[in-house]
Queue: 3 jobs
Job 1
Amino acid sequence: MIKKTILITGGAGFIGSHVVRRFVTEYPNYTIVNLDLLTYAGNLENLKDIEHKPNYIFERGDIADIDFVHQLFQKYAFDGVIHLAAESHVDRSITDPFSFVRTNVYGTVVLLNEAKNAWKGKYEGKRFYHVSTDEVYGSLHDGGFFVETTPYDPQSPYSAAKASSDHFVRAYANTYKLPIVISNCSNNYGPNHFPEKLIPLCINNIMNKKPLPIYGKGENVRDWLYVVDHARAIDVIYHNAELGETYNIGGNNEWTNLNLVKKLCEIMDSKLGRAPGESAQLITFVTDRAGHDLRYAIDSTKLMSKLGWKPSVTFEQGLDITVDWYLQNQEWLQNVVSGNYEMYYETMYKQR
Ligand code: NAD
Ligand code: DAU
């Protein structure tokens, strides 16, 4: 069995926690080091079920702290990096673009540079996997799909920062021959999604009979993928991708925001024993997001045909699992909404 030590950044976040869980459980011969700053978006409760596994290590720290990252690479001889840490919410990037530049651009360059220095040109068996977003391609207006060769056209401070980080990753491959791979994924949904994002925000508000804010007319389209299927794709790409390549990941599952929220209302009315149509009355149209991208739609043909990945659940199944998870994990949701989850690190880790 091949032993590896892999650094996963942002592993306490939504997607990162699913990736950490998958690697820790599927590969007991790997040591997984989860580096996360535990910003408002990082929540170690997401990893409660695997935190005592012998092949899992948590390190709290900032990817933009050069000295810290250097020490970490000295402490562990990493074979690979799977980089997810980022500021991820478009609305926050509109009010605070600088933190997106700091983490998403500068933080990524710190990691790239340290990997380059630590590996000293001995790249056999090494890889730096950068997890990115479909938003780098901009907004679709006239049909069609994003493919790997679609020119970059980011429209928000978030997507501009992610696009910039992708460019740096490719620049390190070109200039220093760093062995890299990039994936660009569409909108994820599933358990542990922070309730600032559309789906968990609406699930929480439907439970609590609060207004469901729809930006603009609700006509913007997103292509939704179940987060566990994204984690599976990351596993497949990490292990099988050709170095230097980019892979798009998507669910082939487009919904307007309005239809999606209506669907959620329908599912939750039935699960909560409410009258059909009751929750949909909570739908409230609010001021549109500035520069709101109209449509994202991903073509994942390359990933499916070259690496054999495909989604394992339909959208109906994934939404059903997701809504059940939130209904059964109201303590998790309460802790996030109240801010209590930030105490988890203090109580669980400070005593060690
Ligand atoms: P998230 O906001 O839920 O999690 C981000 C994690 O990064 C958090 O745990 C946070 O504490 C950590 N972090 C932030 N700044 C850090 C820093 N300076 N140092 C160390 N850790 C830091 O994000 P997510 O939705 O799980 O997204 C993860 C990655 O996937 C991001 O790179 C994002 O751009 C990308 N992505 C997300 C989606 C999506 O739909 N959510 C889709 C495609 C790609
Ligand atoms: O496409 C991938 C991207 O998907 C990721 O890179 C981002 O990290 C992730 O946050 C997500 O970005 P979006 O902006 O698409 O996700 P969000 O959940 O914020 O919004 C989804 C859609 O719903 C979008 O068109 C805006 C709209 N919206 C969102 C919120 C929070 C509303 O109408 N009302 C809301 O309250």
Note: The pocket of nicotinamide-adenine-dinucleotide (ligand 1) is lined by residues 9-10, 12-16, 36-39, 41-42, 62-64, 84-86, 88, 103, 107, 131, 133, 162, 185, 187-188, 194 (CB under 6 Å).
Job 2
Amino acid sequence: MPLTLAEEVARRRTFAIISHPDAGKTTLTEKLLLFGGAIQLAGHVRAKGDRRRTRSDWMAIERQRGISVVTSVMTFEYNACVFNLLDTPGHEDFSEDTYRTLTAVDAAVMVIDGAKGIEDRTRKLFEICRLRDIPIVTFINKMDRETREPLDLIDEIEKGLALTAVPMVWPIGTAKNFAGTYDLTEPRIRKLDSVPEGEVVTGPDDPKVTALLQESAAAHFREEIALVQSVTHGFEHGFDRQAFLEGHLSPVYFGSAIKNFGVRDLLEALITYAPPPRDQKARQRTVKASESKLTGVVFKIQANMDPNHRDRIAFMRVCSGKLTRGMRTTIVRTGKSLALNAPQFFFAQDRSLAEEAYAGDVVGIPNHGVLRIGDTLTEGEDIVFTGVPSFAPEILRRVKLGDPMKAKKLRSALEELAEEGVVQLFTPLDGSGAIVGVVGALQLDVLKDRLAQEYGVPVEFETTRFEVLRWISAEKKLVLDQFVEGNRSAVAHDLDGAPVLLASSAFNLNYTLERAPGLKAAKIKEIHG
Ligand code: G4P
């Protein structure tokens, strides 16, 4: 019997992996796909050369490929669940899209290298998840190597991220003596290279456990288990699903992606604990994922790097209803109608036509620029989803034009590319040259290349004295107006005319803000399609 719409929605899990480069995201992705039975495709993920590519290589690769899909979506099934794993560009291709992708998931897996603990990029991505209270499952990877003390790592997550970390399993042995994990939710062990179901034990001093450990290690292991079990955060096993769903608590698994160990735990955790596709807030009402009419929101635009093909792929998360190929939709922002004749599913670098899709699924919609980031598509209803934001750029550059005759052309090109989400564009009030802002340096390379190739406007970038940017607002218009008047040399307008404050450092920003009572400064700005 075909599944009902509600059943299709309920069996979906849409998630992303957040990690610092080299923590093992690619390896884990590959192993997740193997579990999902997508074996023939697993090789596609490890485009190692690709991931480590230099930026100039990236451009060449993009051109060769025609349309490129940097952020891809991998869909696989396991235990009757459909998983959509949204890839978050993390190496050289780290960009604002990486952040925006996190607004299109319902959960995240945080991969931590057991030897390194929480690293910069993990922290940044975690903060984005926190803005939306996205539930996070933690995977401490590389347990087959020398790692830091597991208790230390737990402590670092709790203190460093202000996140309650609840170990669900505990490693038995370390580094080359790593033998498996002890399940803290029921007395059971899982051994490396053994049956995935594990074996029932009587407790941490069961001979089956002790046999896996050297004598001194066994005593240490028992002490750790006793300690971990005594800290229950007031809940049974220390795990509280509600707190997890609200993003305050993370279940922690230890494993080794390379040895394919602990990966099943993760999938089971996503099935059991992670939420199905969420209801989505629109300005007018909240849209339930199981409503019958199709709605969707565009969170990313991928342009074609080949100037001969000016088409774009808009990535849309289905928010409700059923998408059927060929159906007509309305782009709410423009009121225009758009037929979804060739919606696509992506798999790493491959794609196929999507005949149907449900809430939580992500489809690519080829178009010639009619779709923008933040756009809402419906079957006609006039609703606008909120929640696809712009993120304060982390790199600011002034655009330097070689040929002053092309200033007007540059302006319109920059506006077009900013609308597409390639970079953000800011116009200083003091009349000085346009400033572009990005999250990842690659975005600047893409901008430069596209300005030259598609618009015939070669540019260079100059550093500015500004390093930090925040959107500013005030409850009283007068407060904002007075501030802007008094700080014209440090205020600019974004593409929509919203005022931003520029500062040379975080210290300077705070100094200015402390002297401006009533002024609010924000790191993110909602885009309303
Ligand atoms: P990333 O996508 O997060 O950047 O990480 P990736 O999976 O590429 O892994 C980074 C390195 O860590 C790779 O080694 C990979 O083999 C290794 N690795 C991943 N998971 C584990 C694990 O569980 N245990 C151990 N010991 N190593 C792991 P590399 O030498 O950089 O690449 P390669 O030669 O293996 O391809």
Note: The CA atoms of residues 133 and 246 lie 6 Å apart.
Job 3
Amino acid sequence: MNNIFVNQVGFMPNSKKKAVLNFKAEEFQVIDGNGNTALKGAVSHFGTDEISGEDTYVADFSQVTNQGTYKIVANDVSSASFLVGDNAYDKLMKDVCKCFYYLRCGHGMDKKYAGKYYHEPCHVSKATVYGEDVPPVDVCGGWHDAGDFGRYSTAGAVAVAHLLYAVRFFPKLLEVEFDIPKSDLPDILAEVKVELDFLMKMQREDGSVWHKVTTFSHAPFVMPEDDKEELFLFNVSSLATADIAAVFALANTVYGAYDKEYAKLLLERSLKAYKWLEANNDAVLFKNAEGSNTGEYPENEDNSNRFWAAAALFEATGEKKYYQDALKQKPFIEAYDKQDAFKEYTGNIFTCFGWADVAGLGALSLILKNDRSEIYEFVKQALIGEANRLVKNSSENGFGLCMKKENFIWGSNMELLKYLMVLTVANKLEPKAEFVNTLTAGLNYLLGCNSMDVSYVTGNGEKAFKNPHLRPTFAAKLDAWPGLVSGGPNTGLQDERAQELPKDTAPMKCYIDHVDCYSLNEITIYWNSPLVFVLAGLM
Ligand code: G3I
Ligand code: 9MR
Ligand code: ZN
């Protein structure tokens, strides 16, 4: 089918603007909201690439800078419409932030703010400590992780980290309002506090942190309040403990400006977790209990987590000891970096911001510290080096997308957003038009300039995906609420319905907008949070 793929949300006036055609045309036109031609131009042939499987032609309409709504037309084909203007991402940003509110667990929701997406209090009973004969524990609150109702400490810590680092790097984010109950805190910090309060409950008396709280098996597709199975706190891990030490240290700095008592508590809890790590030098990894199928969030090592904890505490307290500790983890992480299997699909581990490899988050703390030390220079070069690699990748396909075929794994949109975070930070360290253009092209891909012709954010874009793997909206027979980021194309095809796709499907097309496809079309807190970081950078 002949298509014109374009970012269906919009463009900043001065950004590069490109659409991709999968057919040959002599010229293209940009049509404004009144049906007038705003620009005529020639398309250039790019050719085929290994990620999209399309023979692509590119229409560059960067010259269109006037505020307005437009679409692209070539031959008799028309694209989706989009905005040009300084406000192009305003609705998107609010929607993406509001999703955390809709994902609140426990007593977190109010009809006034949740509207038709309100659900009754859920997962309020105390949780059984798995395999131990101790009293059950209150861990009520926080956010559901994703399409499932699990609450996972490492995943939660990482989502919070994306949001709080965004606040640190781009304080304008504090001005974004997204219709949640008012408090003395800016909206974004009020929302993040919901998860921080929950994460505090996940910490044991001895400082260690439970890896997750979930039912034994995933719930059926029911409303959260109808999921009444017993809740279990599964084993502690050094992964969760280190991530919590890190994110509480980061939060200490952010909340200190608003609430000294709360900030003090966060630091105490961070130090308590860190002390436990010091007393437990060997990694305590995590495996699901026999027969349990909820999210595992497994990791092979805890060096990147310990590195993040040390770097965050160094940034928060200024104590040299933590700097030395961070330095101690560096050789281990670099050794991991050298494994071929790892290098195949990612760049440099000091630029990783995912739920497993968190050394990049430590790097962000060191960048904020900005002390020009040996390790500061090292991570700075790692970020800039990775950004340069991404710029090069983006020249290898017609979409200007900085991804390789290996990146199309479960949650490929997070792989992309992680790269856009790298480009955002690199551009702050060493401003370069190429970084900004690669970033813009990546955002264009997410919002519709891709060979699926789909915007991967619900409610944003004429052809936005509609059927996330998400229990509450499915159970309530409602359209998904706006602002959810889909996991996106995944050549792994790890669910039954995904396996209906032909085996030789191009990576960019390994996607189905179907509620059953948890390996292609689920949503999670830590796929939304990096988009907040990237949009905050653009503000
Ligand atoms: O690390 C390997 C890499 O070496 C290899 O080259 C590459 C290609 O196969 O795969 C990499 O591993 C992937 C791993 O994520 C790390 O990114 C696996 O293939 C992939 O299956 C795995 O997917 C994770 C999935 O759970 C299954 O474990 C997703 O990242 C993770 O986001 C997702 O998380 C789920 C929770 O378990 C439950 N809640 C919903 C959430 C989102 O779907
Ligand atoms: O719905 C679950 C989703 O949130 C998880 O990411 C995924 C992997 O843990 O599992 C989904 O649950 C499926 C379960 O694993 C197998 N039976 C079908 C479930 C979805 O309906
Ligand atoms: Zn709940």
Note: The domain at 90-444+522-538 is CATH 1.50.10.10 (Glycosyltransferase).
